[in-house]
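Reviewer has doubts. Consider these tokens.
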Amino acid sequence: MRLSPLILLFTFAYLAFVLFAHLDDHQLEIYDEARRSVNAIEMAKGESHFLVPTYAGEADHWGTKPPILVWCQAFWVKVLGPGELPIRLPSVIATLVLCGLFAWWARKDWGSPLVGALASLVLVSNWHFMGNHGARSGDFDALLILFQMAQIICFYRWVDSGKTKWLWLAGLAVALAGWTKGVAGGFVLPGIGLWLLLFAEGRRRLLDPKLYGIIGLGIAVAVSYYFLRENVDPGYLQLVADNELGGRFNEATEGHQHPWYFYLSSLIKDPAGGIFFSLVLPAAVFSWYQPDLRKPAMLCLLAGLGALAIVSTSATKLYWYQSPALPPLAMLTGSFLYRLAKILAGNTPGQAGKWTGIALLAGLFAYPMSQIVERVLHPREYVETRYSKVPFRDFMRLEEQVQPPYTVATKNYNPNARFYVERARHAGHEVDIKQVGTINPPVVVSQRPPATFFVNERVVICHTETWKYLFDRFILKEEFRNGPCKLVKLTGERVRE
């Protein structure tokens, strides 16, 4: 049997393993992932308008992104029921489809589907991409980069073949990327534009009116969401202007201020696969002198660096903002690694050549793959949210000791706790959630004062602030304790002097 099919089979078996293994083993991350999960479960229950994701029964005015991700999550929640798996499945599926696109494009225009296999391995060797806001997380980014890579591939195929169907598909990818993460959906377009200027074929395509009509239509469809939602959720456009077009771009929020080279440093110093993105520059130089690689390689280079340049100008810098650059740069690096292995194999006499090339690739990927396998096998050790901050799921699972009815008490905003309360309600349990502090906009639309608790109410307490608040007001009788959480009964009001 030829080695190429075996390598492809191994690659996609490995991808399936690292994407699905222990996918629901750890709790939802407290902020973005958990908030999207609340959006999804409320939409799945039919409690929100399909254009307006809700949080705690009100229009979500803090998470202002378009709803494709939430639609996908709501679909899987309806199919599988509430849980971590349906929340994360859209990202996993999007990543698998993206890797399939790599292999397809590599077979068409890069000389071998093995280029796509290596690009896939480079992508999932990125430590950050395999964590929060990545391939295994219930966030926008995996879907976003799938549609962005589709833009890159379809533009290339249109220029190379002249077939208008590819331009239509590129326009569709622009629209879908916009309906996934708004403005970020267009972050690879400037690089694509520069690439069109670089080659004669591209410059000729710039004179084609279909380019502006079809891509303009795609942008119009993407933008249409904002006006459709404004129609049913007045004031939404102003929220978007403050959050996406201003806000984080002009001012660093929540302490996320970093130097301009933050993303370059992040890629090069990646704990698992930094070596691969360090190869981007030599890969680009090598590809420029390979006539059959020059055009696709320069497209990937310009699209990836263009996206990095855009996010680097933002005042707020978060590591997952680099995601749009990962697929095109991974494709460029994968091609370079394939050619290096092929050159080494070609210069090694006899049948040993093939094995020498494979040995080179195995040596390069051994450490990154081992690191990623370690991460996915022990996901609780690598979560960003400390367990002490989100212990609700594991405590609520102790159903023999923690039997409803009860109320989960939180300090104020805690979407992680709200999701697990909603999941318990879906299972038919009488569970409520109350906060001991005030919740202010934009976390919710209208300010929510501290909730009212009652004598004989059974309450789950997991944090010092909630314990102190209730201890100061009620006599507490502990019924069960596990880790940082307790189930208590409010047996009487405490006399306050």
Summary: The chain has a mean pLDDT of 92. Residues 133 and 141 are 6 Å apart (CA to CA).
